[in-house]
Each structure stands twice: as C-alpha cells, then as structure tokens.
Design goal:
The chain is α/β, with parallel strands linked by helices. It has helices at residues 5-11, 30-37, 53-59, 64-71, 88-98, 110-114, 136-143, 145-150, 152-158, 162-166, 171-182, 185-189, 196-208, 216-223, 227-239, 268-275, 287-305, 350-355, 369-373; strands at residues 19-23, 45-49, 76-80, 103-108, 126-130, 213-214, 243-247, 261-265, 311-316, 322-329, 332-338, 358-364. The strands form three sheets. Strands 2-3-4-1-5 form a five-stranded parallel sheet, sandwiched between helices. A four-stranded mixed sheet has the order 9-10-11-12. Strands 6-8-7 form a three-stranded antiparallel sheet. Helix 13 packs across helix 16 (268-275) and helix 14 crosses helix 15. The radius of gyration is 22 Å and the shape is globular.
Length: 374
C-alpha cells in the first residue's frame, strides 16, 4: 500500500469521543486507508458496508438499544459507503452520544456530503477529512523525488487514482472504466440529475476549457440547457470531487475580471478520459493546460492534506493582465505563474504588485514543482 498522509492525522484522533468522517470520490482509497488504520485492532472492530441491503435496513432508524446489540463489545465501528444509508447522520449521532468509548469511522462519497446527512446531526461531534486521489507528495515519499519527477509526463496523462498508479500497464483501460462506471455512479443516483446525457456533455465542455475563464451563460448555450441547470450540475460535480472551481481575485481594481471562474479537475487522468485523449504529452497541443491543471490540483491536495487554510484564486484584468494562481493567507498574497517550459520567465504585472500585499512570487515548472507540493 502507498502510505497516505491523512493516515497519521486521522489516527491521532482515535478515541476522542468524536466520529471520524472521510469523504472523497469513489476509488480514491478510502476503504483501503481505513483497513490499514484498523490492522492493529484485530477483532476489536466491526464493519458495516452500506452497499449491502441488509446493512442499510438495520442501520436505518435504529435506536440505541438495537445499535448496542449490533455493535456488541467492539471498540471501533467502521461504516463504509455510508451515503447509501438513509438518515445515517442520526444513527452515527446516537452511537457517539450513547457510547462515547466507541470510535466511529465513516467513509462516503458525494451524496453523503450533498444531502447534509453528516454535517448537521454531527455538529461538534466529528473530525472531517477529504481523501483525494494519491498526491505527488505521497508518491515522492514512496518512490523518491527523482523517480517521481521522471514520471510527471505520465501523470499528466493518466493521473493519480490508486488503481491507475499500481497498474500503469492497464492505465487507459482502467481510466475508461473508472470514468464510465464508477465516478458518476453516485451522481446518477441522485434525483437532481434529470438528464445524464446533459451531464456528460457539460463535463466534456469543461474538460476542453481547463485553464480558461468559464461563463455559465456561455456553457448553457454550448450544451443546450438553461443557466440554473448548468449551475446546479457544476455544483454537484464539485461536491462529488470531480472538479473544483477557482474564483477570480477581485478586491481593489475597477478593471479586474469579477464574474468569471476557472474550473479544474481533481485528476488529470479523469480529465483525459472525459475527452478521450491519452496521447503522449510530447505530441499534445494542450500540454500547458494539462500542466496547469496538474499543478493547481496537486497544490490543493497539499493544502488539504496538511490542513492549511489558504484561499486560492486566479487574477485577470480587462486589459488581459493575468496571474495563473494566487494564494491568500493572513492578508498576504503569493502569486504563481505555471509554465511547462522551465526556460520561460514571465513577468508579474506591475498593476497587481502595486495593489496587493505580496509575500512572494513563484514560477512553477517541472524542475521545481516538488519544492512547492512536497
């Protein structure tokens, strides 16, 4: 198993009287991570798999007496695929409140978060973590930085989903299966998704526009839908950990772009699977966009894995001055230009530098990426 950074953080909070909730996309390694954490507890834990119909039945509307019977003398309760279980947040709350000596661990994908099944019932009763596909930093610790840097062209095409990393010879086949069958499974089960073909059309359009400013109105015209539906589907895809939005920084200047956003994919492999292009990076015309998506997604993973609460933006003016990526922390800004070619040395716009308190500027390329995300 490739060790995950969250593992150490999670284990430090065992038996503190709070549920541990691990959210993330399907196939990102949530179950594998929990099984690894439980290896030292032998027969002291019980597993409830939400994919099993009888498990869903017994954990729905169960009272504390029934739950005690199910749990017995176990010290840890692991509820896997919890999004499949109706009102699971209430059930977890009963366990936490009535059996504080028992550690509850919950994993789930999109609808668990979408439906508010966890957050409201477990206010003040949970630690919440997000497990994304494997991070560059995790592979550096596993392979070494030299080897992982050599793999960057491969990662730009096939990404970091665990099964893809460990079965690279079948990467294209597995990515097609993942994108077609697993990744959107939870979304298609939701009542909000009335037109699955529209969702596929929309996500392909987003994939082709990675790194570019996105307008909801233009997207609606492109996919032949209305504005509200496009906004709702993008929101659902973001909460399902398929994409994330990067807003524009807009605080001081009248000529700053204010209403548009950029959208990126959490994994480059999924991005390429959506558009059906697994060609080698050296013959691609979109290499710069793939590199930008990779860098920003890896930085977001790094911030999440280390509980760093930096705000992220891009910046652009109507005069087309721009900065690829900006982080804000403690009212200071780090401005980053992302370039695939290490020889490119872009200048940072004087307009931005004169109007924002800068902590530093960076140019991120394949030679120095590891200094920023590991």
């Amino acid at each position: 198993m490739i060790p995950r950074i969250l593992g150490t953080n999670i284990k430090q909070h065992f038996f503190e009287g709070k549920a541990i909730v691990i959210l993330g996309p399907r196939q990102s390694g949530k179950t594998t991570l929990v099984n690894y954490l439980l290896k030292d507890y032998s027969d002291q834990f019980i597993v409830f798999n939400g994919d099993e119909p009888d498990v869903r039945e017994i954990l729905t509307n169960a009272n504390s007496t029934q739950l005690k019977t199910y749990i017995g003398n176990k010290k840890i309760v692991f509820i896997d695929e919890a999004q499949r279980i109706k009102d699971i947040g209430i059930t977890i709350k009963l366990i936490v409140d009535n059996f504080p000596h028992i550690q509850v661990i919950v994993t789930g994908s999109a609808p668990l978060d979408l439906a508010g099944e966890i957050r409201e019932p477990l206010t003040g009763r949970r630690y919440e973590y997000y497990l994304y596909p494997i991070a560059y930093e995790e592979m550096v610790k596993y392979n070494g930085r030299l080897e992982e840097d050599r793999m960057i062209p491969h990662r730009l095409i096939y990404g970091y989903y665990p099964e893809i990393v460990t079965n690279s010879e079948k990467a294209e086949e597995l990515l097609r299966l993942l994108s077609d069958s697993y990744l959107f499974k939870d979304l298609f089960l939701l009542d909000q998704i009335k037109k699955p073909p529209l969702l596929i059309k929309l996500i392909r359009s987003l994939a082709y526009q990675v790194g570019s400013e996105v307008s909801y109105n233009e997207l609606a015209q492109t996919v032949g839908s209305d504005l509200k539906t496009v906004e709702k589907y993008i929101d659902l895809m973001e909460k399902a950990f398929i994409i994330f939005r990067l807003p524009s920084l807009q605080k001081n200047l009248r000529n700053e772009i204010k209403k548009k956003i950029k959208i990126y994919f959490w994994d480059n492999g999924i991005l390429n699977a959506v558009i059906g292009n697994f060609n080698d990076i050296h013959i691609r015309k979109d290499t710069g966009k793939l590199w930008e998506n990779f860098v920003i997604a890896e930085r977001k993973k790094y911030l999440s894995n280390h509980s760093l609460y930096h705000k992220s933006y891009f910046w652009r003016t109507t005069q087309k001055q721009e900065i690829d990526y900006i982080e804000e922390y403690d009212n200071q800004y780090t401005a980053c230009e992302i370039k695939w070619n290490p020889r490119r040395k872009p200048k940072f716009p004087k307009t931005f530098c004169d109007n924002y308190p800068l902590s530093e500027t960076k140019v991120i390329n394949p030679k120095n990426i590891g200094d920023w995300i590991s």
